[in-house]
Amino acid sequence: MNHIKGKQSISFGESPYLISSASVAGSKEAEGPLGKLIDMINQDDLFGEKTWEEAESRMQKEACVLALGKAHIRPEQVRYLFGGDLLRQGIATSMGVEELQIPMFGLFGACSTSGEALALSAMSVAAGYGEYMLGVTSSHFGSAEKEFRFPLGYASQRPLSASWTVTGSGAFLVGTRKSHVRISGVTVGKIVDFGLKDSQNMGACMAPAAADTILTNLEDFGRSASSYDRIITGDLGYIGQSILFDFMKQNGYDIEKNHIDCGMKIFDQDTQDTHAGGSGCGCAAVTLSSYVLPKIQKGEWKRVLFVPTGALLSTVSFNEGASVPGIAHGIVLEHC
Amino acid sequence: MNHIKGKQSISFGESPYLISSASVAGSKEAEGPLGKLIDMINQDDLFGEKTWEEAESRMQKEACVLALGKAHIRPEQVRYLFGGDLLRQGIATSMGVEELQIPMFGLFGACSTSGEALALSAMSVAAGYGEYMLGVTSSHFGSAEKEFRFPLGYASQRPLSASWTVTGSGAFLVGTRKSHVRISGVTVGKIVDFGLKDSQNMGACMAPAAADTILTNLEDFGRSASSYDRIITGDLGYIGQSILFDFMKQNGYDIEKNHIDCGMKIFDQDTQDTHAGGSGCGCAAVTLSSYVLPKIQKGEWKRVLFVPTGALLSTVSFNEGASVPGIAHGIVLEHC
Q: Pairing state of beta strands B80-85 and B132-139?
């Protein structure tokens, strides 16, 4: 029996399993701290395609095929796919998953999309709407720079508060078949807007949303911060993390010891010149698949709160002077 | 007990109710055949805002507030919101629903988004994830022309196969509280790609997806086309409709007598110069709320298959020579 918890959460009765996952990433990610843990790497970041957008679609497809292959599941066995990306009209996903021919729900949650996809996959499995669901998301440095800033050829400079979009995709197979990781609950995020307008400081824009979702999760489930071996945000980066810590302290929680941010984990700040850290839908997805899930599988971490964070903006909203609100979804992952 | 049906469908045991809905639209829609049925109209299409994008957000908010108001439900009683639009990074939705502070899932399904939102709302209610869910979507002629073609000031001409983006938003409250309309089932669409590349003929691009979803729905539920009083597509328009009829005939179904297309219903082709018909997320949503639902409420139509259709493209995918695949989701609406 599934239970509604508190204001925004669901606790699953028969918790769905996170059966398998896969990560695909680019050359810079390969050189980073998680390089050796990533399933598939491409050195020219084009993945055999002609454009950055096609390359991003290709990563999504490869991630899906790999995640399915690891579990020996064929695409036609997957009931529904939940996927999204950062590009306008989600074309990386539409063109990427098309060949799989799985009935699909297109999502947009900015860099929180992996959480959105995992939440809806788990909710659908727990409701009995199918045996297997697939969640997938991606980002690509080349396509994201073109989408949000300037084409790479312009060699634009960026402030130190800016983050570096991860070239990567992560796919996650959720279902009823046993594995060592369960999705025991979700906390669906609200849009949180502190009025910040600096799209080159997305960590600051997203930190209030991360805090809101973490605090709501702890309250909804009646847990302390130490109930989680790790609380893992998506891509707050160095500046966003310090703001998150401040918010949490103001509310009586110290999460400094058990907090990890995927944006700080995927690149080496000292040697890779990625400024505030990694970002993009692929940042949290690749880190979850390559680094976080293996630790939960082994039982090194028993319970983790995964909180990918998204900044809600477009070049149009930015140019028209709108603020950059944030959203974050919380996924409770447990070893079993 | 909810049941998985056939390849892509769900039949709900305790079917969720479509409790209330609201439509908001612009001046051209007000002059059209449905003008008098639309809840809120604005004559300058700016809805008191300064930009087309803000105007679109405002429409979404007004539609949500109206739909909630009709049912005497406060935003804090709504468990989750499912919403999306056509603009890059879904900003019409993010900025539109922000003030309601309902935990939300952002969607992208192009003009099929109303179906996606209704499907996920119904799936969540039927799973017991909350008493009330809100689905919302929108499009705006001014923001869509800027996003996909040229700013209105350029006064671009368009081919006769092009459709006219509806300025409008529809919001739908789905829940456990009784009304005269139930969502008894859904058929989740696949991406269907016939290789067409003409973004100025979206009806042709989407017709194969509409046919695929309708045929799958009939097969999954074991129904004949006449089991539905009406089969209502989103925005195929005149050209798309004739292609849909051909596809259906090839598969042994004649739906000419009970088919309606929202894109052909919302504007008067003879007097409004809208070429192939209306389109945009708002087209199907406004037509459903203002014209279709009242007929189901009254029992004039007992069972309707609502199939909003989306064309999956962006200016980038179009300029890079990609095809324009389609997707369509089927929602079974029944009088009760």
A: parallel
Note the pTM of the prediction, 2 decimals: 0.98
Task: Find where tokens 């605090």 sit.
Answer: A215
Check: CB of residue B97 under 8 Å from CB of residue B83: yes
> Chain A window 60-119: which residues touch B at a Cβ cutoff of 8 Å?
79-80, 84, 86-91, 94-95, 97-98, 101-110, 116, 119
DSSP state of B200: T
Closest residue by Cα to residue B261 from B196, B328, B199, B193: B328
- Closest partner residue to A190 (CB to CB) among B8, B103, B120 is B103
Q: Is A56 on the interface with B (CB under 8 A)?
A: no
DSSP designation for A37: G
- Report the distance separating Cα A109 and Cα A325, nearest Å: 12
* Cα–Cα distance, A110 to B243 (Å, whole number): 36
- To which H or E segment does residue A55 belong? helix A52-70
Distance (Å, whole) CA A168 – CA A150: 20
Q: Which of A2, A191, A315 sits opposite B104 (nearest CB)?
A: A191
Asked if B105 and A107 count as a contact pair (C-beta separation under 8 A), the reply is yes
Q: What is the pLDDT of residues B283-308, one digit of tens each?
A: 999 999 999 999 999 999 999 999 99
The C-alpha atoms of residue A180 and residue B277 are separated, in whole angstroms, by 53
B143, B52 contact by CB (below 8 A): yes
Residue A316 to residues B54, B167, B226: CA-CA distances in angstroms? 11, 18, 46
- Ordered DSSP codes for A298-324: HTSSSEEEEE-EEE---HHHHHTT---
Q: Determine contact: A128 vs chain B, CB below 8 A.
A: yes
Residue A30 token pair: 């390969």
**At A137, phi and psi to the nearest 5?**
-155, 165
Residue B228 token pair: 């539905």
What angle in degrees, to the nearest 10, is found between the helix axes of B141-148 and B52-70? 140
Tokens of B250: 């090839």
Say if residue A150's pLDDT is above 90.
no
pLDDT higher than 90, residue B100: yes
ipTM above 0.90? yes
- Using a CB-CB distance cutoff of 8 angstroms, which residues of chain A are in contact with residue B110? 89, 106
The pair of three-digit structure tokens given for residue B267, joined into one six-digit string: 């504007």
Neighbours of B74 (CB within 10 A): 11
Handedness of CA A195, A198, A203, A206 (dihedral sign): positive
Kindly give, in sequence order, each residue whose CB lies less than 8 Å from that of residue A249, ignoring residues fewer than 6 positions away.
none
Q: How many CB atoms lie within 10 A of CB A195?
A: 9
Alpha-carbon distance of B118 to A66, in angstroms, equals: 31
Return residues 132-171 of A near B (CB < 8 Å): 146-147
The two tokens of residue B264 are 């052909």
